[in-house]
UniProtKB/TrEMBL annotation:
Protein name: Cytochrome c domain-containing protein
Keyword rRNA processing: no
Keyword terms of this UniProt record: Electron transport, Heme, Iron, Metal-binding, Signal, Transport
Sequence ranges assigned to domain Cytochrome c in this UniProt record: 50-134, 150-232
Species whose genome carries this gene: Thiothrix lacustris
Signal peptide stretch: 1-23
One Pfam family from the record: Cytochrome_CBB3
Matching Gene3D superfamilies: Cytochrome c-like domain
One MF annotation (Gene Ontology) recorded for this entry: heme binding
Length: 232
């Protein structure tokens, strides 16, 4: 009987420690791999063909419109406008939320929960729908700030800052390989995004390109660029 009791205790301890080990492994799951140009290219080439009609339905079913608006223009400046956004960029962002690469603040956590049940086909459909919508335009277009326009068109060689236009276009229309459109974007969203990059809190950029760029900007330059792109 004593031998049986000891055996049962041994089994119980083994189960306890195996359960602890499993739980510990679950807590420390490896983070999603950071993007490299080659891996991003492969992901975008594998993106399914998007169905705009189904994307519109998903926009309602998944309650995307509650934050981003029925027409892709956010009802408040706290959330990004997605109307007219490049398909590649929207698709990549949805992948990043689902993989955990985007988890820098409470908004990201809300998005991660929203995209958890989405398939890659769902993501491609939603991205196609948003790309089909007319982009938001500022109602009042102020003259471009000279300092901001210099950064957009020329960059700053003394700080090794490449022109913003080299990726995002002079008018903020976006570029290749998931470089987003910035034209008409909320100034608050732009400033928050650049500040997160600058502080090292947002890390889903390819080869840390945006983090390195933002780290060299002053807060005033970020504000000037936000106003510049909002008014395009």
């Amino acid at each position: 009987m004593k031998t049986l009791q000891l055996s049962l205790i041994g089994v119980g301890v083994a189960i306890l420690f195996s359960g602890w080990a499993w739980a510990n492994e679950a807590v420390h799951e490896p983070a999603a791999a950071k993007w490299k140009p080659a891996t991003l290219r492969v992901a975008l080439e594998a993106m399914p063909s998007g169905d705009m009609t189904r994307g519109k339905e998903l926009n309602t079913q998944l309650m995307c419109a509650s934050c981003h608006g029925e027409n892709g223009v956010a009802p408040t400046s706290n959330w990004p406008n997605v109307a007219g956004q490049k398909t590649d960029y929207t698709y990549k962002m949805l992948l990043d939320y689902q993989s955990g690469l985007r988890s820098e603040d409470e908004r990201s956590k809300l998005m991660a929960a929203a995209v958890e049940p989405m398939s890659q086909q769902d993501m491609a459909d939603v991205a196609a729908y948003y790309a089909s919508l007319p982009a938001h335009e500022a109602t009042v277009k102020a003259p471009a700030d000279a300092a901001a326009e210099m950064l957009v068109r020329k960059g700053d060689p003394t700080r090794l800052l490449t022109p913003c236009a080299s990726c995002h276009g002079v008018k903020g229309q976006g570029g290749k390989e998931a470089a987003p459109s910035l034209a008409g974007q909320s100034e608050k969203v732009f400033i928050r995004t650049m500040t997160l990059y600058k502080n090292g809190e947002r890390t889903n950029d390819v080869n840390k390109a945006m983090a390195q760029f933002a780290a060299k900007l002053t807060d005033e330059e970020i504000r000037q660029l936000a106003a510049y792109y909002h008014g395009r």
